DNA sequence: CAACTAAGCTACAGTTGTGTATCTAATTCT
DNA sequence: AGAATTAGATACACAACTGTAGCTTAGTTG
């Protein structure tokens, strides 16, 4: 699609995708704080001038990369299986969190310099996702169908799964496995909505 | 103890405390990634040479500052009030998390460059604390006294409170208030240990 | 094929941070 | 009081990154 044909010079879309990828890789390696135009350019094997033609600083590049990253897959609650659907929702969250985009967002959220700029353009796209559309989608689905009282859909309950996954990742530095996701659902979410095991 | 007397030049302990404070202030403002000897020195109003005499790079200074920061207050479970003690434990956690040391640790944990070095010397002092000694202390206390079955002390239950506080802080950027702490205890922790309201 | 666009290359001056070194003078110790 | 420390004030060469600018040339478009 891009390599191997006679061309020696990338342009447009292709080049930009390479730069986006470079920005995400770079932030993963050095963190948002040490992100530089130079580093991104070097990694993308393109001159800095190409970057400056489009963006004014490294965080701009990163935000643009995030904006163009694949959207997060949404959980699609299915066949009357609340427990299974919750686990699946958390699985999707983990998958996203360890994607280049997810890791970049994590970095941005704790960076004093860029946390503010995040609010502007990206809240719609990235924040909405991060805010907890994973288990919340599933929980709302089953509450509407009367599997448990809708009054239990408080912020605590809606955040529970994502919060525990996040803490695991921070503590352990690696994604939780199937067993841990099941633990979270069985020992925290289900009890909190009054379904202590079934 | 230090200001106002005739002295014009800080030495030893006093100077070091100023440098530690500068490092913590600096990391709060620019993040771990942009921490520099220069920045710390400027903020502490001391020449860089003074820093290099003791530390070899900015992260060393920061780790040393953390090591010498006040230890976290531990929750002391008291008069047969599980709910109140849990809320108090979370209150202590929030207090620590928003202290200079807490903010610095948060920054370090998500910085690719310094996350590794953290493991070495500081795991004992700072990690142990962060790992969740807040609600865990309280929960173990009451489990031992038979207020609820000890089998429910799983990692999920022990992390629940801290996880939800952390998520609140990341999402909202501000400390949770009393109402939120109560929500966490009432809607997540107590149900998870089988005490759904009383 | 000609004209245009935009990537690639190189250079440059300016800024910030790095380590090191040297000298001075304030504070402490004996 | 005199000696030993050690903070404070420079200064320096080096490196990385910044923006900007000029030029060349590959690729696209009419």
UniProtKB/TrEMBL annotation, chains A, B:
Transmembrane intervals: none
Positions of the HTH tetR-type domain: 20-57
SUPFAM superfamilies: Homeodomain-like (SSF46689), Tetracyclin repressor-like, C-terminal domain (SSF48498)
Gene3D superfamilies associated with the record: Homeodomain-like (1.10.10.60), Tetracycline Repressor, domain 2 (1.10.357.10)
Keyword Ribosomal protein: no
Matching Pfam families: TetR_C_11 (PF16859), TetR_N (PF00440)
InterPro entries to which the protein is assigned, alphabetical: Homeodomain-like_sf, HTH_TetR, Tet_transcr_reg_TetR-rel_C_sf, TetR_C
One Gene Ontology MF term: DNA binding
Keywords: DNA-binding, Transcription, Transcription regulation
The Tetracyclin repressor-like C-terminal domain, residue ranges: 77-187
Protein name stated in the entry: TetR family transcriptional regulator
Phylogenetic classification of the source organism: Bacteria, Bacillati, Actinomycetota, Actinomycetes, Streptosporangiales
